[in-house]
């Protein structure tokens, strides 16, 4: 299972990187495979409870410092697939090469 999520603090001004870093820090410390890009952080795990616990804690880290928080999530549930963060991208790259 892969969850891509974005946490946006509201009411803190235009510079939100410091707040987003709090959320990303939680993901990195979780030990689960993850990837952060300009728009989302993706985290991969075995089941809902494992992944959503990380997302919940990441949101809580931002919520602790911001008066309002917006969260966007996209979930890919595909039992039996591991390393989807890399294998999905590798598949697209193969098609681009050939």
From TrEMBL:
Belongs to the UPF0045 family. Gene3D superfamilies: 3.30.70.930. Pfam families: Thiamine_BP. InterPro entries: MTH1187/YkoF-like, Thiamine_BP, UPF0045_domain. NCBIfam families: MTH1187 family thiamine-binding protein. The lineage of its organism: Bacteria, Bacillati, Actinomycetota, Actinomycetes, Kitasatosporales. This is MTH1187 family thiamine-binding protein. Transmembrane segments: none annotated. Residues 3-93 form the Thiamine-binding protein domain.
